[in-house]
Amino acid sequence: MGRYDQTDSKKSNGLVIGAIGVLLLAGGWLYLDRTEQRAAEPEIKQIELPLASDTVQADQQTADQLAIEQAPTDPPDFAIQASPAVAQPLPELADSDEMMRQAMLGVSPQLAPWLATDQLIKKYLIIANDFSQGLWLEKHRQFLQPPAAFSVQQTDNGSVIAEASYRRYDSLAQAIDGIDARAAIMAYQKFKPLLSQVFDQFGYPPERPMDDLFLKAAAQILAAPIIEQPIPVVRPSVFYKFADAELEKLNPVAKLMLRMGPENTRLIQRKTKQLAQELSNARE
User: Fold this and answer.
1) Judging by beta carbons within 10 Å of its beta carbon (0-12, 13-18, 19+), is residue 162 exposed, middle or buried?
2) CB 22 within 8 A of CB 271
3) Which of 48, 99, 103, 180 is the most buried (most CB within 10 A)?
4) What is the chain's alpha carbon radius of gyration, rounded to the nearest angstrom?
5) What share of the chain is helix, strand, coil (3-state, %, to 5)?
6) Cβ atoms of 210 and 195 closer than 8 Å
7) Does the keyword Transmembrane apply (predicted)?
8) Is a pLDDT exceeding 90 seen at residue 224?
9) Residue 49 forms part of a structural domain
10) Eight-class DSSP state of 219
11) 21 falls within a domain
12) Is residue 41 scored above 90 in pLDDT?
């Protein structure tokens, strides 16, 4: 396979969906083949209880006697017993930013730079919807700015994507890698009523649940190839393009992943797979 990547300095840090959409976790999530091997679950050992039909009465008498001997002399003070915690109700969608932001910071504190915006649920669900279709639209990502401009380096064979260009995405990849997958799914389920309000505006048929949107978005992330060698690019006009025609044919999501470099792509794909597994388990 050749190299690839259409890029320009305006391209935004899009894999934040991998974290929040993949994270609205949310990451964010992929279609798992049901035949795919699941993560190993802890062995459950069956403990056989002895049949003590002849001794049940004697044991009961002993238990009753112990209960009498060990009973407190004074009745318990029920007034000081703590009551169970009451779950905090969800706010209105328009007022949900702070609660969502705190929930996401609990999932991965490193996500803070990508949560400094308003309408968090709406904006990231729209991006997740774009990702599910293999899209990365300028009008939906204007609030996300890359930390530095795309850059290339010159070799004897022409221009290739510079290593420094990959490093622009290190902090994002690490933030996504730091996501607690189980906590992310719990947050997703908690905020699902608010997410559904935005999802319903997309006009999908009833038979397509919101979970599928995230699973398809994650599938796009996981389908992106990983290329270890330097990736040649050309600049026929204003923007750089992948020199390899096959890479240039890839959809915008795959191209975005490629611009992040092989190390960051691995981290994000690994976490996306974990999130998808947790989501799959929660659906069963």
Assistant:
1) middle
2) yes
3) 103
4) 26
5) 50, 5, 45
6) yes
7) yes
8) yes
9) no
10) H
11) yes
12) no
Q: Across residues 165-189, what is the average pLDDT? A: 94
Q: How far is CA 58 from CA 51, 62, 67, in A?
A: 14, 6, 14
- How many CA within 13 A on the CB side of residue 178? 16
Q: Which of 45-49, 82-86, 206-210 shows the lowest mean pLDDT across its residues?
A: 45-49
With contact defined as beta carbons under 8 Å apart, do 27 and 179 qualify?
A: yes
Global confidence as pTM = 0.70
pLDDT for residue 234 is more than 70: yes
Domain count along the chain: 1
- For 177, residues 6+ apart whose C-beta sits below 8 A from its C-beta are 267, 268, 270, 271
Q: Residue 69: inside a domain, yes or no?
A: no
DSSP 175-186: HHHT--HHHHHH
Q: Give yes or no for a contact between 166 and 264, defined as CB atoms under 8 angstroms apart.
A: yes
C-alpha distances (whole Å) from 48 to each of 51, 52, 58, 63 are: 9, 12, 21, 21
Domain that holds residue 123: 16-38+88-149+166-222+255-283
Q: Which residue has the tokens 């690994």?
A: 270
Return d(Cα 240, Cα 133) in angstroms, integer: 23
pLDDT at position 143 is 58
User: What is the four-CA torsion angle of 36, 37, 38, 41, rounded to 10 degrees?
Assistant: 160
